[in-house]
Specification:
Length: 506
Amino acid sequence: MKRSTTLIPASKNPPAKVKDKGLIRLARAGAVAYDSSGDRILWLPLGVALAGRIGSGLESRFRTAGAQPVRCGPGAAGTLPIAVRALKTGDQLPLCLMELAEGSILLEGFDPEGALPGWPLFAERLLSFLQERGLALSVFEEATPSGERTVVGCACDADARGAVEARTCPACGWTGSVDALLPPEALVPEEERPLEPVLTPGATTIVELCRQLGCPPERTIKTMFYATEKDGKAFVVAALVRGDRAVCATKLSRVLCGAAVRRAESVDLKQAGCDVAGFLGPVGLPGAIQVIADLSVEGTKNRVVGGNRPETHLTGACWGRDYEAPVADISGLEPGAPCPACGKPVEKGWVRPVALFGKGHPALAAFPSLGYMDENRKRHVPGTWIGRILVESIALASAGEGDMPFKPGLAGADLLVLPLEAGGDEAGKAAEELAAELERAGWAVLLDDRPLPDEVRLAEARLTGSPVKVLVVDAREAEIAREDGESPGRVPLEDVGRFLEPMRIV
């Protein structure tokens, strides 16, 4: 690209009404503009080049892993119309179809019936591509109302586009969304103590209960009530979680086969036979209430629970002796709760998803004819999975902030070639020839050929953010400047390519 003929409106001033640091950085670089009336990003030539390089790089890696490019157009069905028509026999599997959608890459996989989903191979290709380019990533499993999925994300702040609330551990780096799946914890063996009622006036919160009894929150069991419907009939669910955790509505919905849930109100509890909100617990609940216990509750002994009587709790409550229930992962971590990886307190944070992978397909029910024949002419239904790579989110996550250069391999141009004024026409001609030579060698080059003072062009070069600058001194020498590492300095013009080669990211 030539700077003189390419629309690159770099500016020191951030766009109005924008708080996303990556979007601000891209706008200042002249890579994008922001349309506040439609809350949309307008991608300019440098931004299109950036997103295109990310997309084409990932597409290439996915192709080598077996993904086959197709085009189906927008719609919830994705590539299913192709799979229905093209998939006939088991020897065609596993099959991965890839479609380049607006701002994203859609991967849809079809595996032999009963086989493990094939998406981890493509997730690994994505991770290696981004990690080689210096992007810090978090990978975690999270619940959805219909199941679960794997999320690849980047840490961000609350103002980032697409940000979701997360929990992070400063000690070990563990990160997960509030819907992240949590592993069971090992329990320390305890001798059972008797179940005893204790008066707890006004203790309708875990904080107040712990203050009165002098116990830590993790020694208590919260009983939270939710209202839902099944087959048109309303009922109440009691969710049991450890006192230092919170019920995750998404996880609870998943356990209830995707049914919508809401916090139960007094009228819901009265209809279910309960009327002592704030003091309810799992011991002796009415049979009309469905009870689900979190993994953090299973097997616990000598815990404090609601007494199902006004101003009363029970101490010494033991799983299996006093109460029991179906078990599932239904809790989320509260800030300050132990990290599931190292046990240190977690903090509230934010994460921007850049890729999502999960089993199943939301439109599968609309394609009952999807299937294949084995060698015995027996019909099978393939396993399905979906991966969506959010290219625009990757671009925003990689942009950084301030005037820092973009990461190598995650920039609109790898190199800025700029002839210095002192070199005159001789430097200008040499710069043009060098830029053409470097482009032929596979570099993405931005040539600043404008007849402007050096200080003006160098100031804008900082804004446009190319990781490496090649300043052409004259027809014989150029200075290579790299802000994120060691710079070779001044080198003979014919050796520029050789000195740049170690900086290349394939």
